[in-house]
Specification:
With 365 residues, the chain is of the alpha+beta class. The protein has a domain at 1-64: RNA-binding S4 domain (Structural Genomics Hypothetical 15.5 Kd Protein In mrcA-pckA Intergenic Region, Chain A), CATH 3.10.290.10. Helix content is 22%, strand content 21%. The protein has helices at residues 5-11, 17-25, 122-129, 149-157, 194-200, 233-242, 252-283, and strands spanning 3-4, 29-31, 34-35, 41-42, 49-51, 54-56, 68-73, 103-105, 113-119, 137-144, 159-161, 164-166, 170-177, 180-187, 205-214, 217-218, 228-230. The strands form 4 sheets. Strands 7, 8, 9, 10, 13, 14, 15, 16 and 17 form a 9-stranded mixed β-sheet that branches. A 4-stranded antiparallel β-sheet has the order 3-2-5-6, with no helix packed on it. The chain is globular, with a radius of gyration of 37 Å. The protein starts with a strand and ends in an 82-residue tail after the last helix. The relative contact order is 0.12. The model is unreliable at 304-346, 348-353 and 357-365 (pLDDT under 50). Pfam families: PseudoU_synth_2 (PF00849), S4 (PF01479).
């Protein structure tokens, strides 16, 4: 069954579908030596596919394990793979991958912090970002200036921006002092600086912006700034089913756990075999004074060159038998065979859950 080229490459983690469509339009993708065009379909996953001259390996959907990472972005980091000025990017802290790469599910401004999702499945990233899916993003926003009820109604009803009409799906007041007020707001699309621009239409300035939720995945309060954690199977499948993708049967957390278990079993078997060999060698050691004792030597010849009476013949007696030692050979002591130490989790832990923030449920969400 053939699939669109951009869909196959997105699934392989080379970027979102829109990013790959741009690569194709710029003539940077080829199939079996021919420059690819938008609309090309891939029938053979073993075809020679190159992006910017580099060979790309793709696989059938059933052979891939979808990974999703939650990341707590600090302020100041850029949502780009590399920066000409050498500034820190969100990809700098993520774990390195072999044969795949992380695709960001949406972007955050350099001055915006909070929850970002990354995945190895570009198709999943594309669907989660697409406005037609209406996936909710929730932000905690602190504004400077007086905010009245009419301004809130305007932002919920909708206002005109330079790139079209926009609105908040929900606004909840969370307190404040003087001219500083904190709100929780919800949008269902990811236009550039959309939250900030919406507030600016009402004459107030956003002084702090932090994303706390994407879909039903909340930012874990235990996740430090710059920390990441991989989502477990139920959360991965929640995101996939929300955008009508088939559920996964396992995650890389499961795969890695199985590998660690197999390595541990292999080590324990090797230790047992070594101990058995040591024990066997100890039991086969000869006893002291046993059959290997030296025989008694014959007498020396008499002076004058003639052998003395009864001398000069080989001793007729049998070699003296050494008396067996009384002690038993030392037995090798059997160890417990377990490697020492416990595995240390990656920074930020291994899993994430769809948990709501502490401090009570906010109404109207």
């Amino acid at each position: 069954m053939s699939e669109k080229l951009q869909k196959v490459l997105a699934r392989a983690g080379l970027g979102s579908r829109r990013e790959i469509e741009t690569l194709i339009q710029e003539g940077r993708v080829s199939i079996n030596g021919l420059v690819a065009k938008l609309g090309d379909r891939l029938d053979d996953v073993n075809a020679n596919i190159r992006v910017d001259g580099h060979s790309v390996q793709v696989a059938a959907p059933s052979e891939l394990v979808c990974r999703v990472m939650a990341y707590n972005k600090p302020e100041g980091e850029l949502c780009t793979r590399s920066d000409p000025e050498g500034r820190r990017t969100v990809f700098d802290r993520l774990p390195k991958l072999n044969g795949a790469r992380w695709v960001a599910v949406g972007r955050l401004d350099a001055n915006t912090s909070g929850l970002m999702l990354f995945t190895t499945d570009g198709e999943l990233a594309n669907r989660l970002m697409h406005p037609s899916r209406q996936v909710q993003r929730e932000y905690m926003v602190r504004v400077f200036g007086d905010v009245n009820e009419q301004m809130v109604k305007n932002l919920v009803r909708g206002v005109q921006l330079e790139d079209g009409e926009a609105r908040f799906e929900d606004i909840q007041y969370a307190g404040g002092e003087g001219s500083n007020h904190t709100f929780y707001v919800v949008i269902t699309e990811g236009r550039n600086r959309e939250v900030r621009r919406l507030w600016e239409t009402q004459g107030v300035t956003v002084s702090r912006l932090k994303r706390v939720r994407y879909g039903d995945i909340y930012l874990n309060k235990e996740l430090p700034r710059g920390g990441w954690m991989e989502l477990e199977l139920d959360n991965v499948n929640y995101l996939r089913e929300m955008v009508e993708l088939r559920p996964e049967k396992e995650t890389m957390i499961t795969v890695e756990a199985q590998k660690r278990k197999a390595r541990g079993q292999k080590i324990r078997r090797a230790v047992r075999r070594h101990e058995e060999r040591v024990e066997s060698n100890e039991t086969r050691k000869p006893r002291r004074g046993g059959p290997s004792a030296k025989p008694v030597q014959g007498n020396k010849p008499a002076q004058g060159g003639k052998p003395a009476q009864g001398q000069g013949r080989p001793a007729s007696g049998k070699p003296a038998q050494g008396k067996p030692g009384q002690g038993k050979p030392a037995q090798g002591k059997r160890g417990n065979g377990r490697p020492g130490g416990n595995a240390t989790p990656n920074r930020g832990g291994q899993s994430s859950s769809r948990q709501k923030p502490q401090g009570g449920k906010r109404q109207g969400r």
